[in-house]
Amino acid sequence: MASSLLPQSPGYLPYYLIYSGVSAVLHSVACYRMEPAKSLKAFSGPARPPPTGLLARVYATKNIYTSLIRLYAAYHIANSQLYDLAACTFAGVLWLYVTELAVYKTVRMREASFPFVAAGVGLGWMLLQREWYRNM
Questions:
Q1: CB of 121 within 8 A of CB of 3?
Q2: Where does the record place it (predicted)?
Q3: Which of 17, 20, 22, 129 has the highest count of CB atoms within 10 angstroms of its CB?
Q4: How far apart, in Å, do the first and last CA atoms of the chain sit?
Q5: To 5 degrees, how large is the angle CA 14–CA 18–CA 59?
Q6: Which tens digits make up the pLDDT trace of 63-97?
């Protein structure tokens, strides 16, 4: 039964998309349910904005649509437009954390390291494997 819920396409990239999508959903729930100071802990750099409920909900909403794109792409990995859109979600996360670290100084490297690795792996993997999944 559980195997029928998993993507039926070959390769491991769909599973990584599910992992990152579910992680984003869980963080969205945390942003909605926890105190903003706890759910926005990643933004604790020297120029950190005040952790408000509005900021937490905006970040949660960004995570929800990012997760939906990744989850949908996991099950329709051969759709090139959806594949590219999912790759763009990883590029967007990298852009967010690079600018927040280097330009706005709202995060520190310690908090940004996991998003850098997770989004970097996802984007790199998707760029390297695009033709293989597209020609399925």
A1: no
A2: Endoplasmic reticulum membrane
A3: 17
A4: 25
A5: 135
A6: 999 999 999 999 999 999 999 999 999 999 999 99
